[in-house]
Hints:
The protein is mainly alpha-helical. Helix content is 38%, strand content 0%. The protein has one helix and no strands. The protein starts with 39 loop residues before the first helix and ends with a helix. The model has no long low-confidence stretch (mean pLDDT 77).
Amino acid sequence: MGRDEHKKSNARKQQKLSQTPKREKHDGLDVEFSQDMADHDDMEAMKRSEAADRRANHEQKRRR
């Protein structure tokens, strides 16, 4: 057996992962939000998002 005969077993490990099609990718567009239609879960999500943004901005300022 030569060296190249052993490389066939690793062919499955070297396969690339499938990529997300361009039509399914989103570029982070903001969606219009209405306070009138928001429920409790939406409000909680907004509070958490704002808190995360404050923490992230604070970390960036501290690193400078």
